[in-house]
Amino acid sequence: MTFVDELKSAVTPRAALLVVGVLALQLLFIASYVGALHNPKPRDVPFGVVAPQQVSAQLVGRLERLPGEPLDPRPVSDADEARRQIMNRDIDGALLVEPAGSTDTLLVASGGGTVLSSTLEALFTKVEAANRRTVRTVDVAPASPQDFDGLSAFYLVVGWCVGGYICAAILAISAGSRPANTTRAVIRLGTLAVYSAIGGLGGAIIVGPILGALPGSVAALWGLGTLVVFAVGAATLALQSVFGIVGIGLAILLIVVAGNPSAGGAFPLPMLPPFWNAIGPALPPGAGTWVARSIAYFKGNDVTGPLLVLSAWAVAGTAITLVTASLRRKPQAEPIAREAGGQEAGA
Q: Are 117 and 139 a contacting pair, CB within 8 Å?
């Protein structure tokens, strides 16, 4: 055989296409992570201003005109209302102006991301110094001492996401990426549901009672983990049902390449570039990270929207998997399953 013949035998067209797809994922991974995280800057951070009426509008205007537009300031009636809005996750910080003195109070919430709270503190130290005033910082929702940089919630959700798509990928590799019929699709989804419950509980116990990294309800984190794992797994099963084994790559593209850097983990959403800031809340890592932090530090506030996002992924993934399975009239195996069977026979 010639070298060309050997090459054609060793690298099939299908394998060559998969290698090209892997190269594309690799380059997209680099572009997405570096693009999102290489130069974090606060942009339009929701921010409250508590000040006497005669100076409130003027101060809000000055904050709106700061270089780079780091803040989206709005007047707040009093300190209690500012704290309530921070705990409800309507705003990320607030400045309490004390007209009778020279020291103002900055309210932050490091539980939502210590990088953002530190950035706000540095920003207002400069702003106040320019006006010959000083600022003291009060952390309304402090991150746990065992939760360095407030990253534990993000890593917890990343672990759940990884478990979801790897479980779905294993189900595909072991028996064909497209379920041969509806019964098999139901079995796969049922297996995924059991795995999700176990994985969700395990993650909640590790970050809570075992490591003490996150406060908050273990039961609530368990429920969130179950939903995150199942949503990602069901979405992966659906992509495999439609696109075959290539669906695993598409799941990685959505969850890992696009979802992780836009999740608001390393840098909260207001510090991400516009594209990643926009897509993050609509993807499972971003929705899951938001809910995990709310459970741990914000009394479970403002979780309805993200939970609906995760539920939509779970429902859509389940529906697509069942529908595509019902359209398959004859049981068939994917090439990867046939190849595995052939190797066993040859052995």
A: yes
Region 153-172 average pLDDT: 95
Tracing tokens 């991400």 back to the chain, one arrives at 272
Strand partners of residue 50: 96
Please give the average per-residue pLDDT across 264-270, as a whole number: 94
Q: How many residues does the chain have?
A: 347
Our separate counts of H helices and E strands in the chain read: 13, 5
The β-bridge relationship of strands 103-108 and 93-96 is: antiparallel
The edge-to-edge listing of strands for the beta sheet with 71-75 is 71-75, 45-50, 93-96, 103-108, 134-139
pLDDT at 246 over 90: no
* Chain center to CA of 297: 17
Question: Closest by alpha carbon to 179, among 244, 232, 247?
Answer: 244
**What are the respective helix, strand and coil percentages of the chain, to the nearest 5?**
65, 10, 25
| pTM recorded for the entire structure | 0.89
Is 294 within 8 Å of 87 (Cβ atoms)? no
Dump pLDDT digits (tens) for 18-33: 788 889 989 999 999 9
In this structure, the number of other CB atoms found within 10 A of the CB of residue 239 comes to: 26
pLDDT tens-digit series, residues 119-135: 999 999 999 999 899 99
Q: Measure the CA–CA gap between 86 and 47, rounded to whole angstroms.
A: 9
Handedness of CA 271, 275, 278, 283 (dihedral sign): negative
For 189-237, give the DSSP string: HHHHHHHHHHHHHHHHHIIIIIT----S-HHHHHHHHHHHHHHHHHHHH
Q: How far apart are CA 229 and CA 148, in angstroms?
A: 24
